[in-house]
Specification:
The complex is a heterodimer of chains A (114) and B (114).
Chain A lengths: L2 E3 L4 E5 L4 E3 L2 E3 L4 E8 L5 E7 L5 E3 L5 E5 L4 E6 L8 E9 L7 E2 L3 E6 L1
Parallel strand pairs in A: 2-12
Antiparallel strand pairs in A: 1-4, 3-9, 5-6, 5-10, 7-8, 8-9, 10-11, 10-12
Chain B lengths: L4 E3 L2 E4 L5 E6 L6 E7 L5 E8 L2 E4 L8 E5 L5 E5 L8 E8 L8 E2 L3 E5 L1
Parallel strand pairs in B: 2-11
Antiparallel strand pairs in B: 1-3, 3-8, 4-5, 4-9, 5-6, 7-8, 9-10, 9-11
The chains are: A mainly beta (114), B mainly beta (114).
Chain lengths: 114, 114
């Protein structure tokens, strides 16, 4: 069965510092990977996705992620964070084929401090 | 284009009562999904509709949960009778047809069973 692991439940950083949120997945078949963000009191918003092609994926708000098949990772990065990036971030995977259900990690709470 | 909407945003009910959650997907999206996040846990898949048909309901916890999608448009998720462990945030998501893997989420309904 598909599983997604987000190793860090909380990541505190200072404003303008770089950040990396880690995500590892397990799958023996082709996989599609996603990062979602949930700002306080809001729903889940798609940040970026990897379906195929280039392993470096750029998303909204200056975030990017790199698909690494050999390490089964899909880490999310931003070179300089803002206070407004404070949110919970979810990594999710979807196996290929007709199975459309997303498997989520437990989420990482990113807190950006001034 | 309007996003996925959910109603109500919050619901507080007593154990043994019935609650019905509603989801309106993005217009034209054939796929509709329900997910749930219990406090402290990951977001978990409940079921998937393709138009009005249930494609996959493997995540439904038990027969106290009933989901319907009338005419392939909006969907309802009824919990009857509610138990304490049903508390959590219920998310609805929708996506376009075959081959379009991005799922767009609603703001969620926070259900509290006391």
């Amino acid at each position: 069965a598909q599983s997604v692991t987000q190793l860090d439940s909380q990541v505190p950083v200072f404003e303008e510092a770089p950040v990396e949120l880690r995500c590892n997945y397990s799958s023996s078949v082709s996989v599609y990977l996603f990062w979602y963000v949930q700002y306080p009191n809001q729903g889940l918003q798609l940040l970026l996705k990897y379906l195929s092609g280039s392993t470096l994926v750029k998303g909204i708000n200056g975030f990017e992620a790199e698909f690494n098949k050999s390490q089964t990772s899909f880490h999310l990065r931003k070179p300089s964070v803002h206070i407004s990036d404070t949110a919970e971030y979810f990594c999710a995977a979807l196996s290929g084929g007709s199975n459309y259900k997303l498997t989520f990690g437990k989420g990482t709470l990113l807190t950006v401090n001034p | 284009e309007a996003g996925v909407t959910q109603f109500p945003s919050h619901s507080v009910i007593e154990k043994g009562q019935t609650v019905t959650l509603r989801c309106d997907p993005i217009s034209g999206h054939d796929n509709l999904y329900w997910y749930r996040r219990v406090m402290g846990k990951e977001i978990k898949f409940l079921l998937h509709f393709v138009k009005e048909s249930k494609q996959d309901e493997s995540g439904m916890p038990n027969n106290r949960f009933l989901a319907e999608r009338t005419g392939g448009t909006y969907s309802t998720l009824k919990v009857q009778p509610a138990e304490l462990e049903d508390s959590g945030v219920y998310f609805c998501a929708s996506s376009h047809g075959t081959g379009r893997y991005e799922q767009y989420f609603g703001p969620g309904t926070r259900l509290t069973v006391t």
